[in-house]
Specification:
Helices cover about 70% and strands about 0% of the residues. It has about 80 residues and is an all-alpha fold. The longest helix is centred in the last third of the chain and has 29 residues. The termini are far apart.
Length: about 80
Amino acid sequence: MDNGKPWWMDDPELMALGERTLEELQRSIDESEPVQSDEPDRVIADFYSGACKVALAAARDDLAGARARYQDAVVAARAAGL
């Protein structure tokens, strides 16, 4: 490392590869047509509706219930001598 920089920061081959990649990305952006849709953005729609948040809360509650039932079954099995 020179001047505290890793070797790859000044590597000419990696720099050229990075430049080519950026050029390809820019070309693909320039060539692509904007997508027009009458449907609302799914992420924004979910954010405002809270559907995923509700589903995650329900799954969390189901998991907590399953863990409690499992723990009860283990205690009962041990009490029965298993």
